[in-house]
Amino acid sequence: MIYFDNSATTQTLREAAERAFQTMTQDYYNPAAAYGAAYGVEKQVNEARAYAASLIGAKAEEIIYTSGGTESNNMAVYGSLRAMHKKTRIVTTETEHPSVFETMHAAAKDYGLEISYAPLRRDGTVDVDRLSDVLHADTDFVSIMHVNNELGSVNDLNAIARKVRAVSPNAILHADGVQAFMKVPSGSLPVDLYSVSAHKLHAPKGVGFLYIRNGIHFAGGQIGGGQERNLRSGTTNAPGVLGFDTALRIYQQNMSVWHRQMQTVKLRLYENLMRIGDVCVNGPSPEQSAPHILNLSFLGVRGEVLLHALERYGILVSTGSACSAKKQGKNRVLNAIGLTGARQEGAIRFSFCPFNTTEEADLASERIEEQVRMLRRYKRR
What is the C-alpha to C-alpha distance for residues 242 and 21, in angstroms, rounded to an integer? Predict the structure, then answer.
């Protein structure tokens, strides 16, 4: 099998799975319990929290563990807006992941808010020079993703933050970092809220975190036993958190090599496929996008048909976000950057991990070329 759908999920590292398994079978105590064995698990969780915080220049208490990217994004939106107790203006983009886009729509309806969309360039990045067109002095919440999950477009969070602070100084700024964390350079984050998901980084599913900058007014998410600084109640998913911790430490140790490997495989696949003809890049040039995402349109071919044709040969790709894979209709992300018709119909997203190889890229390219040429002939009939 050749797996080129790593933006949907990744294979869990053996070491991360073993850490989670050990926690489930040996250190299975509830970290909130009062006896010593539970304290030992709580200590491990807090060490993991501090390590995760160090990767984004944050403090340990600013990391709130969640069930993953969707919960982190939902909590970022509703936790911010519930705390405001007023009607306000909110800003996002039309290319956000559904867990932000749909949540912003729901919040606007629930609270009677005015929602605006940041202007985009053709490559899917926010046009920072025109961002002030949708910002106002009373804009109180802005959510703009760091890396687009379908196009690989990388937004300049520092430039966006400067613009938001200048025009809307009271606004809380959130970024969906699910496809960016550990994949693109970030350093200390210039945002107030940042969402992360573990299973995009070879860690178990069902865990993630939300960075919440100290000092912002935030109402939190789930209510219950008061875990996670009383911002996200619920029994701590210690196996997930500690498996995530192991994966993060391995990723950090290998990050520069792994980034180069993903970029190398992506460029190899791109160069091979462009020789087919009538193939277009959607989003930034492959050299400018995130190292693990490549979106191409094969004109004259339906992306969904090509996906299933490749699946028969053990090559797994996607036509967009896994969270929208079973929804019918137009691709909202491609629509937002002006790609319609044949460009949208023939779009395929390839996404890579550090363990993909150039040999896989070559084998996949041969099969893709064969299937594209066959499907084009069939369609012409």
Answer: 10
Which residues have a Cβ under 8 Å from the Cβ of 359 and sit 6 or more positions away?
Answer: none
53 burial via Cβ count (<10 Å: 0-12, 13-18, 19+): middle
Instruction: Give the model confidence (pLDDT) of 4-43 as tens digits.
Output: 999 999 999 999 999 999 999 999 999 999 999 999 999 9
Tokens describing residue 98: 């559904």
Q: Would you say the C-alpha torsion 359, 253, 56, 244 has a positive or negative sign?
A: positive
204 CB contacts (<8 Å, ≥6 apart)? Answer: 12, 16, 17, 20, 198, 239, 240, 243, 244
Report whether 95 contacts 333 (CB < 8 A): yes
* pLDDT value at 322 more than 70: no
Angle at 199 between CA 173 and CA 122, to 5 degrees: 50
Examine the residue annotation and report whether 280 is marked as an active-site residue of this protein: no
> What CA–CA distance (Å, rounded) separates 278 from 228?
52
| Per-residue pLDDT at 323 | 53
Rounded to an integer, the average pLDDT of 237-249 is: 98
Q: State whether the Cα torsion 305-327-99-121 is positive or negative.
A: positive
From 5, 42, 11, select the one nearest 227 (Cα to Cα): 42
Question: pTM (2 decimals)?
Answer: 0.96
The catalytically annotated residue of 108, 323, 342, 363 is 323
Q: Which of 184, 190, 189 is nearest to 163 (CA)?
A: 190
Question: Who contacts 149 (Cβ-Cβ below 8 Å, separation ≥6)?
Answer: 7, 97, 178, 179, 293, 321
